[in-house]
Amino acid sequence: MATRRNFMLTAGALAVAAALPLASFAQDVTKIGFVYVSPIGDAGWTFQHDLARTQLEAEFGDRIQTSFVENVAEGADAERVIREFAASGHKIVFATSFGYMNYVERVARQFPDVAFLHATGYKSGANFANYNARFYEGRYLNGVIAGHMTKSNVMGYVAAFPIPEVLQGINAFTMGARSVNPDVEVRVIWVNSWYDPGREREAAMTLISQGADVITQHTDSTAPVQAAEERGVYAFGYHSDMSKYGPTAHLSATTHLWGDYYVQTVKDVLAGEWKPTNLWGGYQQGMIQLAPLNDAIPAEVKAQVAELESQLTAGTFHPFTGPVVDQSGAERLPAGAVMDDETLGKMDYFVQGVASRLPSR
Amino acid sequence: MPDFPLRLEPRAEPSRLMSYLSPLIAVALTLLVGLLLFSALGKDPIEGFRYFFINPVRTLYGLSELLLKATPLMMCAIGLAIGFRANVWNIGAEGQFVLGAIGASGAALYFSGSDSAMLLPAMVVAGALAGAAWAAIPALLKTQFNANEILVSLMLVYVAQLLVSWLVFGPWRDPYGFGFPQTEMFHDAALLPILLDGTRLSFAFVIALAMLALGYVFMHRSYTGFKMRVAGEAAAAARYAGFSAKRMIWIGLLCGGGAAGIAGMAEVAGPMGQLTDKVSLGYGFAAIIVAFVGRLNPVGILFASLLMALLFLGGEQVQQYMNLPSSISMVFQGMLLFFLLGSDVFINYRLRIGCAASV
Prior knowledge:
By secondary structure, chain A is of the alpha/beta class.
C-alpha cells in the first residue's frame, strides 16, 4: 500500500532516487537534536541555546553528534520537526521554546526511548523533562545597578507579552532599583512580539523621550541597546551580552547559560541514568549570569552586586522577599516571607514603582 | 537603437500548450537552480536533492505529513482561484485563515464539553462564515468606495493577527495555562477524526478534496462560474453582456474567505488542537503561489499544493541533515514563482531570433 501511494504521489524520477539508501551513522555516536524558534544570529535567546550546543560538542567530542533546525514556528509544523529527530535515531531532543510544549508531549508518548527536554513550559512526563531559568534574579541585580546610575529616576522597559515570566522580570527589576533608590519609577511599553527590531527601537525611543535614562528589554533584538547608545542613555541587554551594540550604554545584561545543564543531561543519558526533572535553575545552578559590568559603574555598586550574587548563589537571598506590594497598594506577600514557585508562576500584576498599567483583559 | 538578436513577438493567440508547459518548466528550472545552489553552498547536490525531495516522503508517515501540510494550501488556493479568475485580487487569505480559526475555536469553546456529532460541522460553518465575513470587508469597500481590494485584504491580515493575539492573551486564555497565550485544549468531539492511525492526517484532507471538486463544478460547470471567467478574461465583453461586476467581486472574495476560513478551522481542530497566537504559518500567502502554479485550476492546485508542501518539508530536512539555513525553503518557493512568471511570458509571446523587420 505504501509503495503504491508513493508511486501515485511522486513523479517517476523521484521514485528512482527513493531507492538510494540514506547515509548511515555509526551506532555508538549519540545523536542530539535541537529545535530553535528563531535564527541563531549573534545575540539573543536562540544564540544562547546554540552556545550551549557548541559547549556539548566541545565536551563530548565525537561521542555525540548534534544537529538543529532553526526558525521553527510554534505551530503544527513543530511536531513534525520534533518527531523527525526522534524517528531518525536522535536520543535526546531539546525543544527550546514554550510553544513546542504540546507537540513535545505528543511525540514523547510515541518515542519512549528518547529523552525530550522542553524549555520554559510546565508539562512533563516519563521521558519528558522541562527546564527554565530564574531570569528575574539577574533582573533584580540589573535594577540595583540602574537605581544607582539613574539621574532622572525614570526607567524604560521594552516588553514582549504580559505573561508571568515577563512580569517577574519587570517586578524584580523595579524592586531591585527601589531597594537602593525608592524614588524610581519604571515605565513599560509592550511591543507584542518577541522579536521586532523596528517596534523595539520605537518603544525604546519613546521611553527615552519620556525621560527614561536607563532602558532595558524583555525582547530578543539588540535594537533597544542601540537606541540607548544613540541617545546617550544607559541600557541593559538581555539573553546575551549585547555590549558590542552599545559599548557606552550597555551597563550589563542578564544572560542565560544552558550549557552546564545540557552537559549534565547528556552525561546522565549516556550513563543510562537520566530521569526527567522539572528544573527551574538560577544563580545556584549557574544558569544565570550578568554580562561584564560597564566601567562607568562605581566600585561600591560593583561590590554590592557581587555581594548579592554570592547570596543568590548560596541561596540565602530571594529577590521576591516580602513585602511585595502591588500597584493598588495591596500586599501580595508579607514582610520577610519568600514567594514560592507556584505563586511566582502565576504572577499577573505590577509591583509598586511600575508607572504603567497592565493591559486590561 | 541597436537590434538585440533575441526579441519577444506577441502571439496572435495565447498558447494553450505553453500555459500547461509553463509550470513544468518552472519546476524544472527551480530544481536545476536548486542543484546549483546546493553546490554553491558546498553541499553534494545529489544528497541535497535526496533530502529535499525524497527523504520527506520515504515513509507512509512522511506522506501523511505531506498531505497534512498540503491540505490548508489546497483549501486556500481553490478559494483564491475563483476570485483570481475574475481578476479579484484577494491577497488576505492569511487573515481569513486566522478568522476561520477564531470562528471555529469560538464554537469549540462555547460548546466545550458537548459530545454532539454536530459540533464539528458547526465549527466548519463557523470557520467558513468568519473567514467570509473578514473577506466581506474588502468586498464592501471595493464595491461601495472602489477601495483597492489588494491593499485592504492584505492589511486586514495584520488586524487578524492582533485580534487572535488579543483573544488568547485575554478572554479566551486557558485559566490553567500559567498565563501563556493559548486556549484550553479542545476536547475530542471538537477534533477532526484521524484518517490514518498513528499519523496526524485528518478528515480535513477529504474536505479539501471535496472543495477542489466543488471548485471544479463551480468554475467549469456553472453559469456564475462562466460569467466570472468571462469577467476575468474579457472585462469589456462581460460588461457588454450585462454581468454585474460587483457580484463578481462579492463572489470572488466570499469564496476565498470562506475557503481560507475552513482551512483555519482544520488547523485548530486538527494538528493544533487549540488556538494560539501562532496559528498562522503563512498558508494564506503560500496559497497564492499554489493557485498560480496550479493555473487556477483544481487539478493543477492539487499537484501544486503537494509540491509546495514538499518544499516546506524538504526545507526542514536539509536543515536537519545538512545544516543548511532555514531560509532555503523560502528560496525555493521564491524561485518557483519567479520562474513561473518568467515562463508565463511565453504564453502570450514567442521568442524570435534575429533582427526584427522594421515596423
